[in-house]
Amino acid sequence: MGQTPDMMRAVIAEGSGGPEVLKVVQRPVPRPGDGEILVRVKVAGINRPDVIQRQGGYPPPPGAPDILGLEIAGEVVAAGPGAGRFSVGQAIMALVPGGGYAEYAVAHEGNALPVPPGLSLEEAGAIPETYFTVWTNVFDRGRLQAGETFLVHGGTSGIGTTAIQLAKAFGATVIATAGTQEKCDACLRLGADVAVNYRSQDFVAATKDATGGRGADLILDMVGGDYIPRNYDAAAQDGRIVQIAFLQSPKVEVDFRRLMVKRLTHTGSTLRPRSPAEKAVIARALEDRVWPLLAEGRCRPVMDSTFAFEDVVKAHARMDGGEHIGKIVLTL
Ligand SMILES: NC(=O)c1ccc[n+]([C@@H]2O[C@H](COP(=O)([O-])OP(=O)(O)OC[C@H]3O[C@@H](n4cnc5c(N)ncnc54)[C@H](OP(=O)(O)O)[C@@H]3O)[C@@H](O)[C@H]2O)c1
């Protein structure tokens, strides 16, 4: 593989705990297997699931490296057997099951995408995890349609900022919740029709107010806990609720009569354990439906901050602090 070294710098969590458990260590450069490409990583996106993994709550699925990191942007340096879509030197971004916080990473070529024109590599490295997650949960599973009302919790999270923009681009009315006025203002700037500060307003009442009493057709929730019964209240008749995390709690007492009477659908999913083939289906849908929007500037990752690779501890501390709006990335 030409000039590729044998060893590289990579970030692992030594034990579990706060950002300080993250260590930059030496690891062998991975070799691309069947259908895989080797990428010289220039940008590694940081996601909340990395924080949960660091805290010991989200171990890598079988076969995934213990090196952190679920999304990368960089340059293709080699292709494994049967991988032929991208040429050496091409700039790509990719969803990876782990291994992103490193100088080199392997990606399944079906889970990689070209960088749309006009986008920087930093922006590209901030895209895969949230775009794949939003597409599969909001549009596939949640079946959001133009003209419907979409309620997204955590409106300024990486996921939330992506969900607001894509839902607006596809013609939905968007209600977003966030924990400060500054974050609510950011949601409105991104295109949300209504932003609800959940610390000072009841999101159920605000959703009802905004929809003439109907409620939201689709709710994307990462909070859980007491949001579960409240989402049932905020949902419209025949509404859908898609659960992607439980930042508050996965356990709660719920009166399910509301689900039955309103004919609600409550579902959820996780992205990381899915097979490369399943993720490739999402990648193709994104390339067809969303990449033209990125190229036209109709959606764009919201960049909170960029940290040097060596400052990964500071980058995780920024996410732990919870003041960020949009995406945090590492550059190499
Ligand atoms: N299922 C999947 O496939 C999948 C994939 C990717 C991510 N996720 C999940 O999606 C969530 C967002 O990920 P991300 O990377 O976008 O994270 P992020 O940028 O760190 O956002 C987390 C957001 O949650 C809100 N929040 C934090 N703790 C909360 C609490 N206890 N109650 C209410 N809100 C809280 C914060 O907003 P406020 O300050 O406004 O409260 C923040 O905007 C994470 O939970 C992550 O695990 C799931």
Automatic annotation (TrEMBL):
Keywords associated with the record: NADP, Oxidoreductase
Pfam families per the UniProt record, alphabetical: ADH_N, ADH_zinc_N
Protein name per UniProt: NAD(P)H-quinone oxidoreductase
Stretches assigned to the Enoyl reductase (ER) domain: 17-330
UniProt entry tagged with the keyword Lipoprotein: no
Tagged with keyword Oxidoreductase: yes
